[in-house]
Amino acid sequence: MQPDFFKIISFLQDKYPIAQIKILTNGRRFFYEEFSKACVNLGKVNFIIPIHGFDEITHDEITRVEGSFHQTVAGLKNIMHARRIGQEVEIRIIITKLNYKKIKRILDFVHKEIPQADRLVIIFLEYEGQAIKNFKNVKLSYADFMKEFKIIKPFLGRDKEIRFYHFPLCVVPYDFWPYLWRTLRADEVTFLNQCEKCKMKEFCLGIHKNYLKLFGRKEFQPIRESFLIESDNNYHHPIASVKKQ
Ligand code: SF4
User: Fold this and answer.
1) What is the span of the domain harbouring residue 119?
2) Residue 225 DSSP SS3
């Protein structure tokens, strides 16, 4: 919608030639083939597009824009079709009370309809801005989401990379730890006194400060078991593999 979009991207590419440019968008304008081709022709850019449901009803309920599912999915397919070698396409699912019980159907949909996407990222909602305004409607705790990991497990390693953002370690089964990424800024998270007793603290993202204000601290219990951790020394991806000791 920004009329100077292409000029801005070209400016950035000239000024910062080694920077990785990621276009994070609802993807609706990619519905228009001309536009999606023009974006692909920008060269060294990657695309990140969220999907909130598995059909028009479940997706449009969250975006509050009728027809958005249709445009986003068609847009994703246009980009997938036109993209150049080296251009990545990432799909994000931001989980809230409105869609977390539908996670299997959303994953099935992505697996079937957009199998060539490079990456799928499941993001725990950050309680900020609109999420606080609509707290009653979107309210979801880590404890609520815990059961869903079992449902997600068969999708790991299927056809695309899967990542999880915004999850502290103690609210996730240990076999999922290698899929967790540390993506919140240090000033957005905190650790509790009890975290000092946790054997995994050095690998943990910490807890979003607003989450603690809204849900309290009960869910976060120090991990006392020992694990064999392999790390590839990437701050953002602290655990490469894990085994129980
Ligand atoms: S107890 Fe604290 S440091 Fe340990 S995993 Fe939970 S939040 Fe992270």
Assistant:
1) 5-165
2) coil
